[in-house]
Amino acid sequence: MTISEQPAKSKNVAAIYPLSPMQQGMLFHTLYSPESGIYFEQFICTISGNLNVAVFKQAWQQVVERHPVLRTLFVWENRKKPLQIVRHQVTLPWTECDWRLLAPSEQQKQVEEFLVSDRTQGFKLDQAPLMRCALLRLGENTYELVASFHHLLVDGWSLPILFQEVFTFYEAGNRGERLSLATPRPYQEYITWLQRQDIAAAENFWRQNLQGFTAPTPLGGNRGVHHQGNFLDITFELSSQITDTLQSFAQQHRVTLSTLVQGAWSILLSRYSGELDVVFGATVSGRPPTLVGVESMVGLFINTLPVRVQIPEDTAIVPWLQYLQTQQIEREPYSYSPLVDIHGWSEIPRGMSLFESLVVFENYPVDAALQEPLASLEIDHVRVFEINNYPLTLVVAAQQTLSGKIIYDSDRFDADTVTRMMGHFQNLLTAIVTQPELPITQVPLISNTEKQQLISAWDAHKTEYSSNYCLHQLFEQQVEKTPDAVALVFGEQSLTYSELNVRANQLAHHLQSLGVKPETLVGVCVERSFEMMVALLGILKAGGAYLPLDPDYPAERLEFMLADAQVSVLVTQSQCLDILPIFSANKVCLDTDWQVISTLSSENPVSQAIPESLAYVIYTSGSTGKPKGVMVNHGNVTRLFAATQDWFKFDARDVWTLFHSYAFDFSVWEMWGALLYGGRLVIVPFWVSRDPEAFYDLLLREGVTVLNQTPSAFRQLIWVENSRRDAEAQRGGNERIALRWVIFGGEALDPTSLLPWFERHGDACPQLVNMYGITETTVHVTFRPLSMADAGSRSSVIGVPIPDLQVYILDEHLQPVPVGVRGEMYVGGAGVARGYLHRPELTQERFIRLGIRNNPVTYNPLYKTGDLARYLPDGNIEYLGRIDHQVKVRGFRIELGEIEAALNQHPVVQENVVIAREDTPGNQRLVAYIVADAVKSESPQIPSTTKETTWTSPQLLINELRQHLEGQLPDYMIPWAFVLLDSLPLTTNGKLDRRALPSPDLDQNRHTSFVSPQTETEQAIADIISSVLEITKIGIHDNFFELGGHSLLATQVVSRLRQTFTIELPVQTIFQSPTIAGLAEIVIGKQLEQVDDDALAQILAEVNQLSSQEVKLQLNKDESI
């Protein structure tokens, strides 16, 4: 309804007044999601007894006549602020159904169908009354009452008043008496009271209260932005014993049960989010004690307020709870504050929720009121259906026992997750009152039973794959089996197992003569060649361990590694001498010294090396900038292959590539995966490893069956393969790769990037595998076969631990976290390396000995990975990124991989990376680097499958990518700048080289510069927004919410757009396209939809692209004809 007429003069209008802040919020959310059923309340109970239906119906009508709020409707169209209008008279809609003749099962079915149908029907907010009743008769004296109403009218505290009055009227009417109750105070008096409050004092309080809180507390779950509002609930009830303990504890320490509940929920949020400063919403009664008669008023008095709770590290529970109680008292004078205003006073940007969970503590539940004795009727099976707009709502009721439910958005959370969360909440409540001496951060989230179940599941991988042999000894056994088989290929040359063994033996004897023995570290600086493998094998056969020194490393790094490792023997080539520092100890040049070495024995040398002996030291980057050497034993490596052979079944028919630098531990897997099983190892020349086209040719030519790649390198291979396949198809050729395994490692994998590969090859042959790993835990830790389903997910699932490894996910206090909760990964088992060379303090810090059980076995070292992860319900692990690489921009915690995955879904994006740059100190901003299909920086003609257009400039593509992300991600996750590249820079190890990414071109990314409206449509929209926001200058790319807009103002804008352009427009539109340019495009599209004639539609589209000056010029021309 619109009230362009004067409604106050109508005979059926009793009052007109504004909405309360809570009503305004509910109205907005109802309009924003009209199909969701949000704030539709449905009260259901069973009535038993000889019910006089006519009298019962009349009792309900009498209550409606007593309370003006029950006769209220709402108007908002074409108004600056919405209003509520009270009718003098309304008739309560009443439905009766008689299902006595149906079988009980059919009755139940009919009841459920009726409830669903009733919810689907909803209410028209501009038509009073916004409530109705239904009486479903199931037996001679059994009825189901369904009272439905919109939350805009009443709150939970009002319901007991209503139902008490209904049954009071009924009892009197059933006795034939005429009942006269005192006239209640109208809801309008509360609105008047609100208008007298000091909003400036409230603003000052809330600004101080929320100062420094810049990001909503994350809840986890499915973080996609498109949810359908499918809400479910799970109930709980504490025992009477625990309830009594809680009440006694509260009384003893002078806190309320509500404070206990909020304290437990705060700790739960802190543990689930990893934050020590959390915010959630709390519903307060909102009935000011200074308002006369408020206790008997009916209406929507409740308000939702943010509750900020800080979790101090060492504070005990009781003083902390008492502090929370004090905070509640301090908030009370400002509990009337509109949430939309509080949000505006906070440091969290508009358009984002201030909090994602809500706590409702009901200290006057409806069903308790209905338990009061009735003369002729019995009421039971009371239940309430309700939906709000928060992903999680905890509702707690205090009766004989503490009970409640968690209402959750099923699009975001699954039932198992919420059930576990509910169990953890109960654990916290119990622990608070039974272990009050504990510091807050040590209050146990999980029970001892759950803790033991978690650890037992993690320890289930304690299978042993010990070997009595060293790497070189297993290689020698393979030489005995297949001496004439080809072991190595390099270019056009090859070496058999026997030839390789002889050369390695000769070098080993020479090294032994120089004093090499077990634990002797020998440096190796050799280019990719047969000599490289001869050197590594020779060192191991001599009993020593190798230190790889990549010739492509900077001289300073090589010098540091040689000095830090205290190398006494160096194996190299003459062409590498110039890059090496002066080395005074023993030096072996494989080319110039080989004439002497080749005269030595070709027999396998004897050494004292055992599986526990050092096999190699590989240096990795350190957080302090100083590289650290990781010490790995023979046994660490041999058990890796034994533990994974049941999965891979490698054999002598396999052809492997040595793609990676031998200074990168992925090479360990490549070398020994081939040589321990009799396979063929193709050494990839350095320049080939840098050239995806040449490398793809090598894969075809050599018939490679096992390929190991970093995700960055494999993405480049996918592009080459796609372009080659297209060319071959045109020529009628059919190149086929022989791959049966593609194994990823070295960096995090975005599975969405694999979609083009799966579309060509399927997901069975070759089988793609994601293997998370770390140098300190011997190459690989987990195993995850990938399928087409993974390519549709933004999650990086790394699978299950290798059978002889254990992955523990612990909190900052080294306690196990529950399934679904993120924590830091710790790896234990036979793959854990010795530690860091000559760095005992760092070794002690990262290789910790932790007694998770009271069992000496668990005191074996665990490696502290620095990686965040969580266990999923199916036992798989989801990788969540580095702890030390967490990105917070504008106060929001951001998973960069989520943005990258969204970009990968655009059809022209081949690969991308998003980083947070801080080119100006203190100003950290997101930048996306894009390699687009068929796009070179000098020729940006980019075809799109999403629009029938081409981009004629990089800026147009950037705008398209930005719009693509705006449809999927919240505003704070949209990159500030986009950079188009021909390819992403890689390090020598095939990983992304982030330091080589260039600064963005500001001219291509000026998306916030002022651009005035260019068309009549844009100008009209600008006028509307300027009027609503009361600002004079607004550009077509300015963000409505960044200019100060909020949800209620958004409703006004959409309402005026509907009126101005005579189109249907949902409220969501402005949230999805908060700029004038975006809105103009949508408005034009809506207008075109309403035009039947195609020619007229085209004319309209052309006119809308004209500026106002061009329109006037054209009109003048027409008049002169």
TrEMBL record:
Name of protein: PuwH
Cofactor(s), names only, from the UniProt record: pantetheine 4'-phosphate
Highest rank taxon of the organism: Bacteria
GO terms, biological process: amino acid activation for nonribosomal peptide biosynthetic process; lipid biosynthetic process; secondary metabolite biosynthetic process
Organism whose genome encodes this protein: Anabaena sp. UHCC-0399
Cross-referenced NCBIfam families: AA-adenyl-dom
InterPro entries: AA_adenyl_dom, AB_hydrolase_fold, ACP-like_sf, AMP-bd_C, AMP-bd_C_sf, AMP-binding, AMP-binding_CS, AMP-dep_synth/lig_dom
An annotated GO cellular component: cytosol
Family named by the database record: Belongs to the ATP-dependent AMP-binding enzyme family.
Residue stretches in coiled coil: none
Keyword GTP-binding included in the entry's annotation: no
Keywords linked to the UniProt accession: Phosphopantetheine, Phosphoprotein
Carrier domain residues: 1012-1087
One GO MF term: catalytic activity
